[in-house]
Amino acid sequence: MIIRRLTNEEIPQACELARGVYDIAIRRNFPGGESHAFFDEYADESRLCEEAARGQLFMWGACEGDMLVGMCAMTSQGHITMLYVHPLYIKKKIGRKLLEKARIFARMELKRQQVSVNAVPAYTAAYFRKAGFTDIYQSGMPNNMYIPLVAKSINQVEYEHKTISRKVFFGVSAGFACVVFASGMLYSVIAALMP
Questions:
Q1: pTM of the entire structure?
Q2: Dihedral of the CA atoms 144, 61, 42, 75 (nearest 10)?
Q3: Are residues 116 and 190 in the same domain?
Q4: In angstroms, rounded to a whole number, what is the distance separating the alpha carbons of residues 70 and 89?
Q5: What would the pLDDT profile of 47-93 be if each residue is shown by its tens digit?
Q6: Based on the domain organization, do 122 and 76 belong to the same domain?
Q7: Among 67, 90, 157, 164, which is least packed, fewest CB within 10 Å?
Q8: What average pLDDT score do residues 171-177 get?
């Protein structure tokens, strides 16, 4: 499983995944309602491509081979607008890994101290709480259609893996052995000279 930033050319595929998951998980279980119209308007791939091209939206995908099985989108303000995982991949912690990527990006690239998300439908807030998010409103909900949550962004420094050549390794090892040997000889000489 590879999680990586999606290119603008991959946004239509991500939108298709989001629409498919939305239709199965939400539209089928909650018929009617203005949230469907809002989703349909928001998930317009041409608009999302334009926002991504302007640097206002960033998307990550979880890929299993050539297949996109999860996606996450976040605005330049650090608001996570989409998180969808293919139903066959739900229990594989893909959503958490996508959220982690977005939180790292928010801190490292956008210099944001926190990210936000609206749990839609409201019962999905439990998932986000388990992933480290907390409710914005502690008493009473402003809207029963969604629950706004926030989480700290994540500071991560990635180190480039470097290998040491054999020549350098043996040179350093031989040098260290010489230092140990010389120290031992010096100690022996000093010990012999002491009464």
A1: 0.73
A2: 80
A3: no
A4: 8
A5: 899 999 999 999 999 998 888 999 999 999 999 999 999 989 888 99
A6: yes
A7: 157
A8: 80
